[in-house]
Design brief:
Blueprint (H helix, E strand, L loop, with lengths): L1 H38 L5 H11 L3 H6 L7 H4 L5 H11 L13 H7 L8 E3 L5 H11 L1 E6 L9 E4 L3 H11 L4 E5 L5 H6 L6 E8 L4 E10 L14 E4 L11 E2 L5 E2 L17 H16 L6 E8 L5 E7 L15 H7 L4
Antiparallel strand pairs: 1-4, 2-3, 2-4, 5-6, 5-10, 6-7, 8-9, 10-11
Helix pairs in contact: 7-8
């Protein structure tokens, strides 16, 4: 009976896999058709199937990076979500999302407190009176979920009296939330967009000897939003690693290309970030510290440039977004694979 049971299990497994593959294919086909309709494109389904077979892209990535306009060799240069996850497993980076400092903003703030350049509170660890005093001191603070990303759940809270602050603390305490001071950004970044804290995403890979910086992309809100996240409607811009100058037009999640900021009219190309060398030094120091922790090698850092010429680390992401490649119009897959040979 045991051999028969084993054969039955194998058959069930094969059938389950076929059903999973079929369901995913149908879901991808539906998404593919939706993207074509939204963009007014007439692209054969076979074009996506070939790209998916080569680099395991999904429909979102296929249209985001315009793989339908790229040769197989050009497609193969890109890091996709599937490839990113495989790379993370290969180098042993954390898989829990919230269990280490990159996935938990409270742990990040505790470990890298000397890189923050702002005051903050753990809303579960502080008292209602401490929270009220904190908000009163700063006027308006940013409330963030400790274990979420992409700008989700972030909100502003302004002081409206102690009783109101007590009630807000009661509602938030115990929900893994933190409150942060909103630091004043550099006047150059205010000129670009004063409604949000404009940050640069810097992609690093740390090994036992060095911290390698692969890409840097400036992020800004497209309108009067107070968050600059690309997934929340923001714009990505390629930054030259040598000079800290923007070297591309802006691009949003829908693929719209913008030469100027739609809110302020500031031209994108040539926009120079202040204190760029200091920003790179800060990221290298922080990445070296994170390397001392387990499973923190391939990280994406969000960096802010402050009015007092300080460089503030806002957060880092252990399974960072692949969209950082978009404004550069090139992929980092092969470069990352080569770096991953040394841990």
């Amino acid at each position: 009976m045991k051999p028969i049971s084993a054969k039955i299990r194998q058959s069930v497994h094969r059938l389950a896999k076929r059903y999973h593959d079929y369901s995913r294919c149908e879901s991808y086909r539906e998404q593919f058709q939706q993207y074509c309709a939204e963009r007014g494109l007439n692209i054969p389904w076979s074009s996506f199937r070939r790209a998916h077979a080569l680099i395991h892209c999904n429909p979102y990535e296929f249209f985001l990076f315009k793989f339908y306009e790229k040769s197989p060799a050009e497609q193969d240069a890109y890091l996709t979500i599937w490839r990113r996850n495989c790379f993370a497993r290969k180098i042993g980076d954390d898989q829990s999302a919230n269990g280490t400092a990159p996935g938990n903003k409270i742990l990040f703030n505790l470990i890298l407190k000397d890189f923050l350049c702002r005051e903050w509170l753990n809303l579960t660890a502080c008292t209602a009176e401490e929270f009220a005093a904190f908000v009163k001191k700063h006027g308006t603070v940013m409330i963030k979920p400790a274990c979420d990303g992409c700008g989700r759940g972030i909100r502003l809270y302004s002081y409206a009296g102690d009783e109101d602050a007590f009630a807000r603390h009661e509602a938030l305490a115990g929900e893994a939330m933190l409150a942060e001071e909103m630091p004043a950004q550099h006047e150059w970044l205010n000129r670009l967009n004063p409604t949000c804290l404009n940050t640069v995403r810097i992609c690093t890979y740390a090994d036992r000897d060095d911290v390698h910086i692969l890409l840097a992309s400036l992020r800004t809100a497209k309108d009067d939003s107070f968050v600059d996240n690309f997934s929340a409607g923001g714009i990505f811009l390629a930054v030259d690693l040598e000079t800290g100058a923007v070297i591309s037009d802006g691009v949003d999640k829908k693929g719209n290309i913008l030469s100027r900021h739609p809110h302020t009219g500031v031209p994108f190309r040539g926009f120079k970030l202040p204190n760029w060398d200091k920003a790179l030094r800060t990221v290298r120091l922080a990445a070296r510290r994170m390397y001392q922790l387990p499973q923190c090698r391939f990280l994406g850092w969000d960096v802010a440039f402050l009015a007092n010429d300080e460089i503030a680390l806002i957060e880092c992401n252990w399974r960072q977004a692949i969209e950082i490649q978009l404004p550069h119009q090139r992929g980092i897959f092969h470069e990352l694979q080569a770096l991953g040979q040394k841990l």
